[in-house]
Write a structure and sequence with these properties.
About 35% of the residues lie in helices and about 30% in strands. It has about 170 residues and is of the alpha+beta class. The protein has an eight-stranded mixed sheet with strand order 1-2-3-4-5-6-8-7, sandwiched between helices. Helix 1 crosses helix 3. GO terms for molecular function: acyltransferase activity, transferring groups other than amino-acyl groups. Keywords: Transferase. This is GCN5-related N-acetyltransferase.
């Protein structure tokens, strides 16, 4: 059974990403920063995006009760980014990640959504330890992870990848 928990912050709604979000996911996954820092997911149309959501996002939501969330601004109901908790192959524990459309960066939405999701992960989902990975060149992401309280633990290379990534972590004390 899929648990569709919606999470609210002062300015945002974090709702589980579903197939109806395909057009937005297509746009986000093809932004220059996504392609540079996260990688090409070969999502070349809204149809590809719907399939990506169905095969890559929804199974974890169904299995664990949390996953990828579409971030919606409450003032105008515009989808501005994603924030999620991921059971990622090659990483111990749960990985937090986030990405926003270029027009919504630098306005505190990343911190607001990720901080609330971290809180819910520890208090409601029972997650004991949270990790995050980022490219060595993604300085803004590194700063945000540190602001969230995550500490640099070292580096890692994910299975079937070549790039060495920075690995951050935080424990639920």
């Amino acid at each position: 059974m899929i648990i569709r928990k919606t999470i609210l912050t002062e300015r945002l709604i974090l709702k589980p990403t579903i197939e109806e979000d395909a057009e937005f996911i297509f746009e986000l996954l093809n932004t220059p920063k996504w392609l540079k820092f996260i990688g090409d997911r070969n999502v070349n149309s809204s149809i590809d995006a719907a399939e990506y959501i169905k095969t890559r996002m929804l199974p974890q939501l169904e299995r664990l009760g949390y996953g990828n969330y579409t971030v919606v601004r409450t003032s105008d109901n515009v989808k501005i980014g994603t924030c999620g908790l991921f059971d990622r192959e090659g990483l111990e524990g749960i990985d937090i990640g986030f990405a926003f459309l270029p027009g919504y960066e630098g306005q505190g939405y990343g911190f607001e959504s990720a901080n609330k999701l971290k809180e819910v992960a520890f208090e409601e989902f029972g997650i004991k330890e949270m990790n995050a990975i980022t490219s060595k060149e993604n300085i803004n992401c590194q700063k945000l992870l540190e602001k969230l309280g995550l500490k640099l633990k070292g580096t890692t290379i994910l299975p079937n990848e070549k790039e060495e990534l920075l690995l951050y972590g935080i424990k639920n004390e």
